[in-house]
Structure formats: C-alpha cells, structure tokens
Specification:
- The protein is mostly beta strands.
- The protein has one domain: Rieske [2Fe-2S] iron-sulphur domain (Rieske Iron-sulfur Protein, 3-layer Sandwich), CATH 2.102.10.
- Helix content is about 0%, strand content about 45%.
- The chain is globular, with a radius of gyration of 13 Å.
- The protein starts with 7 loop residues before the first strand and ends with a strand.
- Bound molecules: FE2/S2 (inorganic) cluster.
- The site of FE2/S2 (inorganic) cluster has 10 residues, from loops.
Length: about 110
C-alpha cells in the first residue's frame, strides 16, 4: 500500500456522499461521521459529547453539524463546540481521497 496511506482506512466512496449530508462509518470502535462540504470531506466523531446521540442523525447548517437530541452545534471543520449544551469539542480525523475512495486516519 502507498505509505502515505499508512493508518488510513478505506471507509466510503465519494459517490456515497451527498453535499452536507452526514454519512456514518465505523472504523473498529470509532464511530465517525463523514461530511462532504464544498468538495472537501471532513471526518468528525459521530457521537455527541453532551449525551449519547449520533450526530449523523442530525443535520448540517452552514458549516456546523447540529445534534438531533438537544441541538448542540459543532464546527464540521474543527470539531469545536459552537452552541451548548455540549461543552467538549468533537474529535476530528484526518481524511484523504484517492481515486474516489475516502480514507480516514484512525
Ligand atoms: S446529546 Fe447532543 S446536545 Fe445533547
């Protein structure tokens, strides 16, 4: 395998992703949400840091993902909390796209 893809896992094809529709994937025990936004793919934890909710069940507003349970908002690009009740930022993951295949580093 290309060494630059060391520790990267193939998780989806670009054709699986729709602009600003969160797409859930699991890598081992990690629950991750992929978000295609303006031709870039971002990977963030799919689990809200407030209580347990899958962020991929929420929605994207501009560049923020909104939790379906209590409407906390996080930056898709940095994982930062934008709106309470969550107080802890989301983990983000490095993403590479090679030949239409999306890879996430875990
Ligand atoms: S579980 Fe996400 S805001 Fe409460």
């Amino acid at each position: 395998m290309d060494e630059s893809l060391e520790n990267y896992h193939a998780v989806a094809s670009m054709s699986d992703l729709e602009d600003r529709v969160p797409y859930p994937v699991d890598v081992g025990a990690e629950e991750i949400a992929l978000v295609l936004m303006d031709d870039n793919v971002y990977a963030i934890s799919n689990v809200c840091t407030h209580e347990y909710a899958c962020l991929s069940d929420g929605y994207i507003e501009e560049d923020r993902i909104v939790c379906p349970l209590h409407l906390a908002e996080f930056s898709v690009t940095t994982g930062e909390v934008i709106e309470e009740p969550a107080e802890e930022d989301l983990q983000t993951y490095s993403v590479k796209v090679v030949d239409d295949q999306v890879y996430v580093k875990v």
